[in-house]
Amino acid sequence: MNWLSSTLIFVGLVYYQLADGQTYTCSRPSRLIATNQTQLLKSPGRSSNINYPNNLRCIWNITAPPGMLVRFTVQTLRTERCCDYLQVRWDNSVVRLRDRRSNITFVSNAINLFFRTDGSVRLWGFVANYIIVNSTVGSYTTPPTTTVAPCGFSANATNFSRPLNSPGYPRSYGNYLNCNWYLTARPGYFVQFILVRLTTERCCDRLRVYGSFPYMRQFAGYVTRSTTVVSVNNTMRLYFRSDGSVTRSGFRGYFRETSVAMTTPAPTTTTPPTTPVPCGGNLTATNVSQDFYTPGWSSRYRNNLRCYWYIYARPGWQVHIQVVSVDTESCCDRLRITAPGQTYTINGRSSVIRNYISPANRFTLYFRTDSSVTRRGIYLRYQETRNNQIPTTPTIPPTTPEPCGTNYEVLSSEQPLRSPNYPNPYLSSRVCVWILTAPQNSKIKLRLSSFSTENCCDILDITNVLNRRVVELGGNLSSTVYYSSTNMMTLTFRTDDNNNMQGFEFFFSIATGPIPTQRPAGQT
Hints:
39 strands, Jelly Rolls, serine-type endopeptidase activity, CUB_dom, repeat, 5-stranded mixed β-sheet
């Protein structure tokens, strides 16, 4: 039969070849007919082993002859998680594939594909195949809705703990969830929610607790230690949201009524601003160093910002900018510092001090964010100067940023060891390791001066050279002293992606005199 021969029909498919002769893009829908021979379909650029181009809008419609079905299989897919995806429509269903996926099969009499990319990161793309079949066996199915863990409910909290889990837990939750749980206690009582465990896609799937103290808590990524949240009155709302890409096991928790309010003061930060930062404006540089923060620095900036600031110095003077701390989505959110003949792009994560001096008396700052991941933002200082000189006025204390881990030789005199950016809040998603080494047959004395971290999730482990636990620290702690059991000690500091606090300050030296009995492991 003629229709069994391998046939591939392109209707209105347009390829644009760029100067390098390799990169292609697409326009207009393409009609493909499945046959009894397996045929390949690749994202633009994949046939030349290059990444897909930016700003694609590709459409393919795959059909089968009458009485037959199309089996479409995505063999391998790799795209930018936030912004690039392959959308598959079949029967009355639709799914968007992004990030890393493989071996996903769809069976229907017609398959509609839409491949979309944005203007930032370019990755590998996808390779798929299609063929005619006469059975729907093996087709992708939408995960069934679970009745054990519904997507939201309203409930009265009692003095008995009741479970509250993400839909499907411990199996993966579904895509595009918007779940609300409304919890109410008796007048004069409070709602207590205990989060036992959480595993979600860090960038895009999150659990938020409203009506708590402090005013809102957000959890995303991995939470492996029980965390308790208490409402400020007798009501609490939990909101769980997932996007259309990666799904994980979700969260497990309990809620109950309590008569004890959370009276501990909300975590504070030593870093301004105390009032909202405007999105743009005119600023005047003087001979005194001034702070500048992107909007939302004390928590997170918003999506889709387009902010311009103009920093002016006196005629004949220059503007000096010192970038102190950067925490943005590296692909898509950035600050541009421009002047005639100069453009500097600031993005990603860094605590390295960087200095810029304008050629004339003005700098323009442009802060742009996209619609996906948000982080803390950017902190810098500005001041006027002359003759291309970096001002001698101190910009931030300390003048040398604290390292995120290093090796120290322990001496008889005390030396400081501080969290990065101390006494300002430490940065998110860090793993810092400090190794202290004293002379042979010596012990190390570690004196705690100040300690303030997020109790659930930002933890400092202190171990000796045999990796036996000495102590695990988290929360707000008072001054105390720890001793090593050998001549080496290791400090490992791990932080999650939110609720950064002041951090810690220790002083270490060679221990002299009798060594007190070491406290048991885990006791603080």
